[in-house]
Amino acid sequence: MVVKVHGPAFASATRRVLACLIEKGIDYEIVPLDMLNGAHKDPEFLKLQPFGVVPVIEDGDFTLYESRAIIRYYAEKYKSEGTELLGKTVEERGLVEQWLEVEGQNYHPPIYNLVVHLKFFPKMGVPVDMKLVEESEEKLAKVLDIYEERLSKSKYLAGDFFSLADLSHLPFTQYLVNDIGKDYMIRDRKHVSAWWDDISSRPSWNKVLQL
Amino acid sequence: MMKTTSYTLHFYIRSISSNILNFLFVVSSSIQFSLTMTLKVYGIGFSTCTARVLTCLNEKEVEYELVPVNLGVGEHKKPAFLAKQPFGQIPVLEDEDLTLFESRAITAYVSHKYKDNGVDLVRFGNIKEAGLVSVWIEVESQQYNPAITPIVSQLYIIPMRGGSTDHAAVEAAAEKFGKVLDVYEARLTTSKYLAGDFYSLADLTHLPYTYYLMKSEWASLINSRPHVKAWWEDISSRPAFTKVAENMTLAG
After folding, report:
1. Looking at A142-146, A176-180, B8-12, which range is the least confident one?
2. pTM for this one?
3. Which ranges does the record mark as transmembrane (chain B) (predicted)?
C-alpha cells in the first residue's frame, strides 16, 4: 500500500515526513498542493486537515496529520525495518522524545520565523517583520549554544545513534544554511556544524531534496 | 559408620548453608527494594508543565516525589539545575540514572515504560489508535498551545513575575484561540475524546493551560462550544487531575 503524502515537496514539514518514509523504506506518492495559491485553505483540503496546513498522509483509509505525529507513527509501525529511528530501549526512546520536543518547542518557533520571513514572504509579497527576524535570530542562537554543548558530548542529539530527533531538524535547517544567508549560525559552532554535515549528507535527505 | 556420619554432617552443613543463603537473599532483596529510587519530578505544583507530568503519573498509578524548584530565587537558572535541564525550564524527571525534560517527552516515556499500569494513555498494542493520540498531542503542541499560552501568560504568569497584563494582547489571542476551538468543536462532535472514544494522553496534555483559562472570563470560549464544554467537564473531573489541580494556585 502506497502512502499518499499531500503537500508540495518543497514544504518543510512535508520534507520531514518524506525523509522518514525514505529512511524506513516505505513506498510513497506525493500529491502536490498549490499552497502558494491558497489550495490548503480550500474546503476539500480542510476536510483532510482542518487546520489547513501540510502535510497530510492517507494510508488506505487512514488519515494522519502533523508531521511529527506522522514520523512517530511510521517509525513505530515499521520499527523492525529500515533505519532504527526510535532508539533501542525505553530509555533511549525517552531521549528521542525529549529532543523531538526540544525541536518542536524551542528550535522550531524561532527558525520558522526566520525561514518564513526571509525566504517565503518575499516570494509571496508579504511584508517582512525585521524586528521579529532579529528577535528570532537571538532566540535561535541561544538554543544553538545549548545544542553545541550537547553535541560536544554526544554524536547525535538523543545519544550516539541517529534518530527522529535529528531528522526532525533537517528541513528548516536546510533553508537556514543554504537559502537565507544565516549559515554562520551553524558553521560558527564546531559540533553543531559537524552534526549538520553528518545528518544532511544522509542519502535519504539528498533524495528528498531532489523531489 | 564414618561414612554415614560424614554424610549426615555434610547434609546438615548444606541445609544450614542454604538457609543462610536464603536468609541473605531475602534480606538483600528487601534492601534492594527500599533502595530502588522513586521517580523524582523537579518542578512546582502551580506550574502548567509540572501539572501535565504529575497528572500523567497519577493516571499511571506510579509513585513519585515532587522536588520543589524555587523559581522565585532563580533556582532554575543556576548551574546545578542547568546541569539537569540546559534550557532552565521545569519540569525534569529523574528515573534512576535517566534524566528527562520536556513535559510531553516525560509523559510519553512514563506512558510507555508503565504501559501495564493504570490507564492505557497511548493505546499500546493498537498502532492506529496510537497514531491518532500522537496527532492530537502534536495539535496541542503546534496549534492549541501557541494560541492559549498568550492568554494564560498575560492573565496569570506575567503578573506573578511583577509585570502587568496587556489586555489588547489577550483579546487578539482570544480571537485566534476561538478559531482553533472551532476545529475542536467539530472534532468532538464526531468523537467523545480527541483521539477517539477513549481518554488518552492527547486529552490529558490539554488540561493544565485550559484549567487556568477556565478561571478567567475567557472560560466563555470553552463554554460557548457545547462539545468542547462537555469534553472539558469530563476530563477535568478525573481524580488524577483534580488532585493536581489543588496545587494549581496561580489563578487564586
Report:
1. B8-12
2. 0.91
3. 20-42
Query: Do the domain assignments include residue A145?
Result: yes
Q: Which residues of B touch A50 (CB under 8 A)?
A: 183, 186-187
Is the Cβ pair B142, A65 closer than 8 Å? no
Domain limits for position B175? 127-245
- Write the ipTM: 0.96
Say which of A69, A76, A143 has its CB closest to residue B127: A76
Rounded Cα distance, B175 and B163, in Å = 23
Contact state of A106 with B87 under an 8 Å Cβ cutoff? yes
pLDDT score of B8: 55
Cβ contacts (< 8 Å) between B138 and chain A: which residues?
Answer: 66, 68-69, 104
For residue A93, give the chain B residue with the closest CA.
Answer: B109
Query: Cβ contacts (< 8 Å) between B186 and chain A: which residues?
Result: 50
How far is the C-alpha of A163 from the C-alpha of A68, rounded, in Å?
A: 13
B104 CB contacts (<8 Å, ≥6 apart)? A97, A101, A105, B52, B137, B141, B205
Nearest Cα neighbor of B153 from B170, B175, B174, B178 is B170
The answer as to whether A185 is a domain residue is yes
- Residue B22 domain flag: no
CA B98 from centre of chain: 16
How many other CB atoms are found less than 10 A from the CB of residue A51?
14
Q: Kindly state whether A197 is in contact with chain B, defined as any CB-CB distance less than 8 angstroms.
A: no
Q: Last residue of a domain, which of B59, B89, B113?
A: B113
Q: Is A97 at the interface with chain B, CB within 8 A?
A: yes
CA distances from B231 to A166, B14, B81 (A): 36, 66, 37
Domain co-membership, B143 together with B80? no
Residue A210 included in any domain? no
B194 CA to chain A: closest CA distance, Å?
13
The pLDDT-based confidence of B37 (bands split at 50, 70, 90) is confident
Q: Which three cell numbers stand for residue A51?
A: 487546520
